[in-house]
Structure formats: structure tokens, C-alpha cells
Amino acid sequence: MGIKVHGTKVSMCTMRVLAALYEKGIDFELVNVDMATGEHKKPPYLSLNPFGQLPAFEDGDLKLFESRAIAQYIAYAYADKGNPLVVQDVKKMAIVTVWMQVEALQFEAAAARLAWELAYKPMFGMETDVAVVEEHEAKLAKVLDIFESRLTESKYLGGDTFTLADLNHLPIIKLIYNTRAGKLFEARSHVKAWCDDIQARPAWQKVIS
Amino acid sequence: MGIKVHGTKVSMCTMRVLAALYEKGIDFELVNVDMATGEHKKPPYLSLNPFGQLPAFEDGDLKLFESRAIAQYIAYAYADKGNPLVVQDVKKMAIVTVWMQVEALQFEAAAARLAWELAYKPMFGMETDVAVVEEHEAKLAKVLDIFESRLTESKYLGGDTFTLADLNHLPIIKLIYNTRAGKLFEARSHVKAWCDDIQARPAWQKVIS
């Protein structure tokens, strides 16, 4: 049976799941989903993810979707393998969970649109909307101000160790760090150090290789 | 020390945290935050939630924000009290987590704007934007089609028992169920039965009383 990831390395959310798998050193099969032909919007893919989004995930009989839920499953189900991505203490894990929520709801709201405008649109030969970029850069700057403050208190967002609260940010950071939005990260010394640190992780290097 | 919730019963995210506390039967103090004077956008509140959003939460020395992270902490830290809101089995919990993510990222994206247009704006004497309502009703209908299908397989979104995957939906459902958007829930028999079931829970009745 084994683990199957249905997705593509171009998809941010697929990258998130691959990062968790490489951190754990778990074997898996990447089953390519052809977005160009809309394979993700048709059966049989819709039986794996009814929202028609990438990725979907199988571990034997278990079928999951939503990349953050998949990464969290990998962290708990394979707790004894590779690098820990969660913490055991309930109060410490609550802090990690706060910053996982911040990523999903605050960071993503500002940065995912920048990834679309600054990375995907040029990739597809589409024109970037500069007004939208400026609006979302302003939003991202406010979020990163809070990250800068947080990262003066602890090395990672969730605490002293690397966790899903950091990992979940990697795909968007990868996409926009080398665009005009990269200056927002570079202008904040703790945020920059954090980005450099988490992007240098061997597991992440495998994802982007 | 005890548990303090900084927020107001008008805030959807505060309601989510109160629902979890009442399910667990835990004593707490609701510390009112005066949104009308912008108390949530100034110190000292910003030291509790740097994003200036409601609610914030204290349990002794532990300080948390992001309502879904708080509800999850309550579920794990007080696992032995009141009604269970999570499940122990890692694979079953992964399914619960999928639907928690669906609530936060898919349902909220469609429905929170409807809550604003159809519930909060009338409350504040502002005019509802019908075009925005129609756009988001169409989005919500697609999400609820997937819920309807899911709820033919299991009584609750996360599985056979009530969990955070259901609870987290309650505040928005409460706000829009008795508006024009209510027809979207009522038109889907399994969704309607699920809404009726979870809204009738004694803990939720305490929140809205």
C-alpha cells in the first residue's frame, strides 16, 4: 500500500506535504496530477479531494486532503521517525498551534496572492497586477512586523524548535522570496535569519531540487 | 489565576472559544473588550493578541490567541472533563483535522463575508451589498454540496462523534442561519439535520443565551 501523494511539485500545498515527508525520511510515491488538463477537477481525483485542489494523500486505507491536515498527520503518525515537527507538552503545543493558525489565516491571506501575482502569473505568461501586489505587500508587512517581534523571543515561531508552524510557511516563502516582495523579509533581521534557516533545511532542499 | 477569555459575545471567534469551554464545563471569566472604543487595537490588549483581533485567552501563565488554536488547547488540556472534542486515534483524528481545515479555509472564506453582509452590517445600521451576498452564496453553496455528501457518510463532519470540526462552524451558522443565506442550509437535508443537531447542544445554547 504505502504512502501516495497526488499532486505536483509546482503546487504550493503539495510542496508542504513533501517537506513533512522528507523531514520524517519516509518513503512515498508522488503521483502526478495533470493540472493543465484539469485532472484535479474531474473524477476519479474528486473522490480523493472533493474540493478539486492539490494535493491528496493516501497512507494505506487512509485518504486525506488539505495540506496542513496531511502534514499534521505525518507529524503525529510518524512521531518516532526523522525530525520532530510537533511538541509533546500540551501548553507548548498550544503555542505552536497558535502560529500554525497565524500561517493559515494571516500570513496566507497576505502572501498567497503575492505568490500568484509575482510567481505563478509570470510562469504562465500572465501580467502581474501591480496595484494588487502593493495592497498585499502592505498587508504582508504588517504580518511580518509581528513575526519580527515574535522571533526576538524565540528562534522559531512556535518556540525553540522547528515545527509545523515554521514548515507550513516554506512554500510561499520559496515562491516570493526572490521577487520584489523579498525585500519585506530581508528588511527584518530576525525574519530574514529565520527564512534563511528554514529554507536551508536538508528536507526543504530535497523538495525544491 | 484561572481561565480568562478577553472578548465579547458579539464576536464570532469569542463565541467559538466559549462553546469549547461550555462543552468542557470549565469555569472561566469573560473579560469584556470594548470594540467600540478600539480597545482591541491598543495596548495592553495587543500584548495578548498582536493582531488586534478578538479573542485572547489566558490559562494561568499561558497566553493564547487565534480562536481555533484556543479551542484545540481546551480540547486537549481538559480531555478528561465534559464532552470530548477530539479523538485519540491518530488516523481518525487526521480526518477530524481535515474537516477542521475545511472549516477554517473553505467554509469561512465563503461564509464569513455573508455573516458580515447579512448579520453585522444590519446590526450596525449599514447597508448590505447584494452583489457580494450573491457571489458568496454561490461559493457557500458549493461548499455545502460537499458537506451534504460528507454527511451522508457520517453523522458529523469529522466522523461519528461531535468534534471541533463541527463546533468551529457554530458561530457563523448562528449568524447567517436566520438570514436569506439560511435557505442554502435548509435545502440540503443532511446539512440541515447537522445544523439542527449541533445548534441544539446545551453548551451552544449557553453561548447564545
Automatic annotation (TrEMBL), chains A, B:
Its GO biological process annotations read:
defense response; glutathione metabolic process; response to cold; toxin catabolic process
- Tell me which CDD domains the record gives: GST_C_Phi, GST_N_Phi
Q: Which GO terms describe its cellular component?
A: stromule
Q: For this protein, what is any one GO molecular function term? A: glutathione binding
Asked if the keyword Transferase belongs to this entry, the reply reads yes
* EC numbers for this chain: 2.5.1.18
Keyword vocabulary terms for this entry: Transferase
Enzyme class, first EC level, given as a word: transferase
Q: Does the keyword Transferase apply?
A: yes
Q: Which Pfam families match?
A: GST_C, GST_N
| InterPro entries the UniProt entry points to | Glutathione-S-Trfase_C-like, Glutathione-S-Trfase_C_sf, Glutathione_S-Trfase, Glutathione_S-Trfase_N, GST_C, GST_Phi_C, Thioredoxin-like_sf
Catalytic function, reaction form: RX + glutathione = an S-substituted glutathione + a halide anion + H(+)
Which family does the UniProt entry place this protein in?
Belongs to the GST superfamily. Phi family.
Question: Protein name, please?
Answer: glutathione transferase
What organism is this sequence from?
Daucus carota subsp. sativus
